[in-house]
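input
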Amino acid sequence: MSNSQPDRAPTRLGILLSGRGSNFLAIADSIRTGRLPGVEIAVVIANVSDAPGLAAARAMGLPHAVLVSKGRRREDHDAGVAACLKQHNVDLVCLAGYMRLLSPGFVAQFPHRILNIHPSLLPAFPGLEAQEQAFAYGAKIAGCTVHFVDDELDHGPIVVQRAIPVLASDDAHSLAQRILAEEHQAYTEAIALVASGAYEIRGRRYVKRNS
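output
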């Protein structure tokens, strides 16, 4: 599909979040302001009942669901999430601060249709507290990565990366805040690229096709 075709069906996003959902809010704002044409949010799903991002989705009038993960087997919980996404005819799943490892069975149901954003320039500093890892390591360049999700942690094919210098005036908090600002732009860019359909995956590489 191509963004040059105004009559094409919109790309329907399923947003998964666990907390405040700042990347979800940035995506929603990009849709509202026309920076993501041909894209709509089909459903917002939280695995934490009091997630602030869920309250924001409710306030926006977006379809939303709470599927609490605590105390449930990962496979059972993921099956419920997958069913909810399919019920809402989701084309692309976007993890927006979703603090859960997805089961292989879940990933297999959405091949190259799950995006995640990570606050480092992968493959550097995977896992939790990536910004703090970069600062503690003395990295001179930091940033964020939007990638497809596969069965390994922070590992799938990279779609977009944005880099920033680590300033002499930075501490771990200020670096994290500056990376977050880049995340909000990178996720919109990556969703637009994937929604266009003008790409292919070659091995681990995302390759944009010429129009």
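quick obs: The CA atoms of residues 43 and 63 lie 5 Å apart.
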